[in-house]
Amino acid sequence: VLPNVLTLETFFPQVCVHHVRSCSSIRFIKSKYACVFDKSAFNFSHQHRFFRTSAVSRGQIVQFKLSDIGEGITEVTVKEWYIKEGDSVSQFDSICEVQSDKASVTITSRYDGVIRKLHYNLDEIAYVGKPLVDIEIDASKGVAPEEDVVETPAMSHEEHTHQEIKGHKTLATPAVRRLAMENNIKLSEVIGTGKDNRILKEDILNFLAKQTGAILPPSPKAEIIAPLSKSETVPTAPKDKARKIPIPISRPIVFSGKDKTEPVTGFHKAMVKTMSAALKIPHFGYCDEIDLTHLVQLREELKPLAQSRGIKLSFMPFFIKAASLGLLQYPILNASLDESCQNVTYKASHNIGVAMDTEQGLIVPNVKNVQVSSIFEIASELNRLQALGSAGQLGTNDLTGGTFTLSNIGTIGGTYAKAVILPPEVAIGALGKIQVLPRFNGKGEVFKAQIMNVSWSADHRIIDGATMARFSNLWKSYLENPASMLLDLK
Amino acid sequence: MVLQSSFKSCLPLSCLLRTPRAGFGGTASGGLIIQSLSNDVYQNLAVEDWIHDHMNLENRHVLFLWRNSPAVVIGRHQNPWQECNLQLMRQKNIKLARRRSGGGTVYHDLGNINLTFFTARKKYERMENLKLVVKALKALRPQLNIHVTDRYDILLDGQYKISGTAAKLGRTTAYHHCTLLCNANKFLLSSVLKSPYKGLKSNATPSVPASVKNLFEEDPSLTCEMLLDAIAEEYATQHRIDHHITLIDPTDETVLPGINDKSKELQTWEWVYGKTPKFSVSTCFNMIYKDSVLDVKVDMDVKHGRIEACDIDLPQQWLPPALCSELVKSLTGSKFCPNETTALSSTLLRTCPQDYELHRKWNLLCENMTMLM
Known about the structure:
- The complex is a heterodimer of chains A (490) and B (373).
- Chain A is an alpha+beta fold.
- Chain A is 29% helix and 21% strand.
- The radius of gyration of chain A is 36 Å and the shape is elongated.
- Chain B folds into two domains: 30-273, BirA Bifunctional Protein, domain 2; 279-372, CO dehydrogenase flavoprotein, C-terminal domain (Enolase-like, domain 1), CATH 3.30.390.50.
- Helix content of chain B is 33%, strand content 27%.
- Chain A: GO terms for molecular function: acetyltransferase activity; dihydrolipoamide branched chain acyltransferase activity; lipoic acid binding.
- Chain A: Its cofactor is (R)-lipoate.
């Protein structure tokens, strides 16, 4: 007797069931509908409970028809497919998006199974009542799919309403929900192991088993769920402990996360190229500590003045101007080596790049001609670049032509860093965060100092350590004693 | 004319979900009127998504009232490059949003009100909703000459569009939303909804342009508040519920759990731009370089908002061919986005020969390319 098959017709007058595999027994319900069922598959599910071969090949193909849209609409345009042929779907998964006269409709699957055929291409017109996709239903799960539940099931039950309200849409078929309800189980307490954390029948049974301490019959799946051992449920007496060492139970850890691979494109692809070129530069590093106590004070004094002119004054304009003054003495740091390493070009303009962290990633706009700019001018230019950067509107001119770079990584955090030189430049400085630390003054007394670390990287093919050190010392002296900058300002 | 002012309160939505406000003598039919406290288009669209996904509307109807600060909202299957002036929007800081319902492109600002009618899927009926709106407006100002067309627009004086409609149908629920122009910036509306991009070919749903008018122009005493109130009152009457508007905060996770994730998703590039149906760009432009004019021809295929294929036809030897092909290679797979293109072209320049002329030419070409986006 195959009760499911007999009632299929009455429940789904519109469903046309085909069976593609040849089989030993054929049973006809009506001359129109040939409902073919493989007897051997049925024997399988009765006798061989503990094993399951890949019974997918024995599934039935069901033609899922486009259901009524409402308002007397008969045709729609297919706008997007969410699945492709060969994908597995579960009941209620989205299949496609169709559009009809300003209305966008999400069509969801009525069955669990595998998509075997899409009847329409994108932008084609689909007809209500005609097949949309062919789904192969898993035979071992039974032929009769869940009843077409248009309204959310078991909603009158308070608990289930609550679960939907919590925003966590607990996915479960109506049969599973019924099972949970009959056993007074809250779906929100059950861990779902199906697709999208869907709660399966096995999950409910596992949950029940845990509650009652029962030992489950081995599930039809290949994985074995270890029965609960006594040592977990019953506290052992000290005597027992001396005699027995509890064997740790290893439960299979269920983790449904998947690796995600995506191509490297656009800006990131360009960065790969640039950084690979940068690797060819032999880097050396040089680090130091700067006492910014005086500079902090100076900035506090100048901030309101800049504000009155509509400009936000940070520390960067000082760092940038000091660097430019240093580059005047050590122009090799503002140079560029050609590809063949035959010629060094000393750049006249100090176009100092400032590393910026945006949604895209690291971009480096530069302040042009710092050598002839005042600190206020540098500050206002920085404001402009920062505003454009956060709006994502920096232009090519702002992003090209840099000759030297400073990266203020300290605003995010960190002390020392090893920055990578951005070709075609030959040096870069990474600035750590400003920390208040105890230091000794000339009289041997401890005082509160505002300390910042700087980490320089330079191209060792044309820059030597001594040059870098002397540049750094000069830069440091300007910042530790800002008044000295006045002497050399151009 | 005395208007019954609506009683507004802030209640946890969960309370209202469990105890539908059945009217007197009513059957299980319940109704709910809610209004957003936010003017953020993404947050408000997220509220629509949340109600659509989480509320049980089996025997319940919900009316959602909302307004947005300046934004352009395109339909689910539309192409923003075809529909609006993205460059102007970036300059004016006007947001771009893609909604989940179908239909065409609209401009929102605080002078426009949005109404969303939520029902069970079976009870989806747009004409009824629009007739309700017209009835409410006529009750407020009987002299208004307004009617609903068979395209679900509301016209003023038989020719000016004051409301457009769109809808979304899911498995168990559906919603129909529409705009209503009270006092919107018509000048900005028309300039922002005009696309400057040429040579686009696509199967995306096109918008049907229409002459619009504000109700304010017909009757300067009208305000958005009055319109919202009148519509809420008519809705309350028809669904036999109290004229009570519940205010909701679209950032409150306790009332709307999971709402912030929904707002975030609506703001991602992948949703706003990436959901554009496949299209192609075939255009040409002139570049002026050192007293000579150059013709450049560009062909691009864009899928999921990314450049699938790209061809740039430049005058021979103007740029080294190796460099040209490097640019084309980098653009392939990249987002069809001016920001992305500028960033990648500037970065690529670092590994090119350091030639001032070359850099100038490269920057000129890339700037023109970004103008297409």
